[in-house]
Every structure is written in structure tokens, then in C-alpha cells.
Amino acid sequence: SGNNYEIIIIDDGSPDGTQEVAEQLEKIYGSDKILLRPRARKLGLGTAYIHGMKHATGNFIVIMDADLSHHPKFIPEFIRKQKEGNFDIVSGTRYKGNGGVYGWDLKRKLISRGANFLTQVLLRPGASDLTGSFRLYRKEVLQKLMEKCVSKGYVFQMEMIVRARQLGFTIGEVPISFVDRVYGESKLGGNEIVSFLKGLLTLFATT
């Protein structure tokens, strides 16, 4: 790609063998390119961001799921978009252009669309996909947002964009295809939906 990069893998003691695969990759590509930074147990997405950020040496950070539901082929497009508009954040969107979701049942699609629609109506965030997590951030912008964000779970991604708009940061978008994981289960359940609605109302009241 011609870009200097490092891949930081945060594994929270998952039972799926992520760490063993990452160790093999580290041997192949070298510990300067593959940085394995495991934690003993599941401590949440926000703290994983902070943990990864501490070890990042670049000026920009791409955050993505490691199960290939976020395809690495979109990363060059994120970089191109950032340079094109000098954006603080480039967010992958499933709801614009040729973006889309593959492998979800109707219920999951309705929940995601409904969550996004509600968020657009209440918060007017200036971005089309609030609940996705495939994004490129300017490192110092990510640090500032992490200091401001208080949400956990599903709401966290949404709050990152809402706070970014509140603080005047610029956001570009790249259409992406999201492919649901082949192995393992999605963690979205009734509790997450309730906490999402609570978080949405909190943001509506405070932003």
C-alpha cells in the first residue's frame, strides 16, 4: 500500500483462538507490524479503544472488527477519503451509495435501520451510519472523543459521532459492505436494545 502501518490486536480472553492466530501472524510479519495486546477478560469496547490507542504510534487510527465482517479492502478508500477532504473522521456507512449488509436476518436489519432512523430524527448527527464501528480517526481527535464519551455497548459508536459533531470535527463517509460473521453469535440482545434506547434519550437530552 505504500503506507506505514501497524496492526494492534486487542483480545479480551476470547475463547475462539484469536490470540493463537495473532501470535502466528506476529511470527510471520514481525512484532513491529503485528502488535498483540491481550487482556485477561472482557472489559468492554471503550476500554479496548483506550488500550489500543496507548500502543498506537501513527497519526491516524483505523478501528475495525477482526472477524472480517469489516473487510480490509476498504481501508485504502478510507485513507483516500481522509486526504481528499482532510477529515478528522472517516466513517464506513452501510446506508449510502453502494453500502449494504449481508448475512443478517430481517429482524436484525429492522433493528439496525430503526435504530439509525430514530437517531437521525432525534440527533441530526450529520452522518448516515451511527451504529457501525469501522472508522478512521485522527489520533488526537480519537483521544478527545474518548475523554468525552460515557456510553457503553451499542450506544458507544453513536455517541462518538454525536460528540464529534458537537466539538466541530469533520466527518467523511465511505460506503462499505458489512458481512455478518460466519462463526459465533452476534451479541445484540434485548438488554442491548433497552440500553441503546436509554443512551439515545440521554444524548438527546444532553447534546
UniProtKB/TrEMBL annotation:
EC number: 2.4.1.83
Gene3D superfamilies hit by this protein: Spore Coat Polysaccharide Biosynthesis Protein SpsA, Chain A
UniProt xrefs under InterPro entries: DPM1-like (IPR039528), Glyco_trans_2-like (IPR001173), Nucleotide-diphossugar_trans (IPR029044)
Domain spans labelled Glycosyltransferase 2-like: 3-145
One GO-annotated biological process of the protein: protein O-linked glycosylation via mannose
Pfam families referenced in this protein's UniProt entry, alphabetically: Glycos_transf_2
Subcellular location(s) of the protein: Endoplasmic reticulum
Cofactor: Mg(2+); Mn(2+); Ca(2+)
Keyword rRNA-binding: no
Top EC class, one word: transferase
Gene Ontology, cellular component aspect: endoplasmic reticulum membrane
Function: Transfers mannose from GDP-mannose to dolichol monophosphate to form dolichol phosphate mannose (Dol-P-Man) which is the mannosyl donor in pathways leading to N-glycosylation, glycosyl phosphatidylinositol membrane anchoring, and O-mannosylation of proteins; catalytic subunit of the dolichol-phosphate mannose (DPM) synthase complex.
Family: Belongs to the glycosyltransferase 2 family.
Name this protein carries in UniProt: Dolichol-phosphate mannosyltransferase subunit 1
Organism this protein belongs to: Dryobates pubescens
